Amino acid sequence: MTPNGLFQILFFFLIIAAVTKPLGSFMATLFEGKRTFLHPLLRPLETLTYRLVGINEEREQRWTQYAGSLIAFSTFSFVFAYLIQRFQGILPLNPQRLSSNNLSPDLAFNTAVSFVTNTNWQAYSGESTLSYLVQMAALTAQNFASPAAGIAAAIAVVRGFSRQRVNSVGNFWVDLTRATLYILLPLAIISALFFCSQGVIQNLGPYTLAHTVEGGEQMIAQGPVASQEAIKMLGTNGGGFFNANSAHPFENPTPLTNLVQMILIFCIPAGLIYTFGVMVGDRRQGWTIFGACAVMFFAGAMICYWAEQHGNPMLAELGLQTHATSGQAGGNMEGKETRFGIAASALFAAVTTDASCGAVNGMHDSFTPLGGLVPLFNIETGEVIFGGAGAGLYGILLYAILAVFIAGLMVGRTPEYVGKKIEQKEVKMAMLALICAALSILFFSAISSIVRFPSPGHNANGQTVPHSYWNPPGPATANFNNSGAHGFSEDLYAYSSGTANNGSAFAGLNANTPWYNLTIGLAMLIGRFFFLIPLLAAAGSLATKRKIPSTSGTLPTHGLLFIGLLVGTVILVGALTFFPALALGPIVEHYLMQSGKLLSVLLLPLWS
User: Per the confidence metrics, is the pTM higher than 0.85?
Assistant: First the structure.
């Protein structure tokens, strides 16, 4: 690792620490129903929205009504996103005349679910598949709606801890409106204008046919990129306009835009952690969770950076230059952009998988085994290392519930957190959320790695049957570009990313098949709603309880002790759940690479 690379990681985190308090304070003021500095400008638009859609902002909802509203909103969003994709061929803003046939029913289903659940998994190439209207009205619009819904849900969970002896957790429609109007829209507009100033494109013109110096022709794709780029980062969505995502120079042209994109990914999740501290009346609680996330962030970023900068030891043993010098980056530069280098690429990979973003500026499939293990394990923690917009906060609060429960078992006391007793219902709901997510990842990964489809023209009994779209040839694993441990890692990463609503991928997997489109789509739904709804139930239960004063026997939930307990809970739960699967993928691949290093040493004299 180089001093410059370490400085980049530290400098990025210092910026995040600096923006956490002001943004978190603003969001706390907003969701407590108080006046902010944006109210003179946006309050008329907010009240107009309520009048148009018939919302009574004074009426609050029980957790069941809140969850029902969230599900109803998500269902409508899914239907709209699905239909607009299926009819893109006859809709306007389609200068390339892309056909509706570009989107099969299963691909449209997968894409609609992906953007509604804030996953943004993309089993297609955006520039050759989707019209401008679909990119804007279906995808960019959901890039606002889905994180706003996640922020609203997180605030409802926080109210469960902050309120007492009430049976309501807020109004979903009011929280959704405020998150969109006061947080996402202003920041997205400013960010989009900044990106345009740096060279990110924004237009509605047809693609440009360019003539190369060799005399050939090249079609240069373009479109409304900056507007989508801003909200895809800010809302921790991650779905790119182009297939190459933030590795594409039209999406991420300079090191400065790369830095700003990472800041946008982390700013709302970090701010919401401080919001939690403000709303529960003890800012130390927010900073404690922030500290736990910081510890896990630095651990992952440093391991990933070390592994990528260290590179493949087999190349070093063969006498190739792998150390960083003034003239070359060294390490593992495969799949990375030279304008970013190893440090910024490793940092981006850690940030985008700590949060549920999924945007990439390099190909995770080309990382070293340990370098690829970091983003994979980040995802499998449940995206709680700062996490997504809203999703990170309610995810880490789930682990806080488990942490105080475990501590209570050790000392023989009823666990308490921020003045609320953590009892049977809250622990059951937390465990239900974790089990559903783990089951989705492991079950679908296991089935996908062994399932075989009938050969073309024959069924499982060898009888001749007509070939069909739903009867593809060969095993599901035939979609891997790699076999063995790395092929399994691709499969495991796909379902981990889908279930955790991340959206990034080990890109060696051809996921645009009915099997993957449908099963990953189901994994995304499980990861979003089977994780969120139990936490809303726990919030509803907590809101009805009274706060109890701290005593000498109360476990302090602020300070270094609880940071260690919370980090240990996250790491141990993730390791115990997923270590056997990881051992079959990146871990064994790492040892295979090390054995290859030994083999290269033995064969080097013969090679010479």
Answer: yes
